Amino acid sequence: MDNLHTFLRTRRSIRRFKTDRVPDSVLENILSTATFAPSAHNRQPWRFVVLTGPAAKMHLANSMAEEFKRDLEKDKLTDADIEKRVNKSREKITNAPVVIILCVDMSEMDNYPDERRRQAEYMIATQSAANAGMQLLLAAHAEGLGGVWVCSPVFAHEIVRDALNISKFWEPQAMFLIGYPLEIPEVRPRKPLEEVTVIFRDP
Ligand SMILES: Cc1cc2nc3c(=O)[nH]c(=O)nc-3n(C[C@H](O)[C@H](O)[C@H](O)COP(=O)(O)O)c2cc1C
Question: Is 35 inside any structural domain?
Answer without folding.
Answer: yes
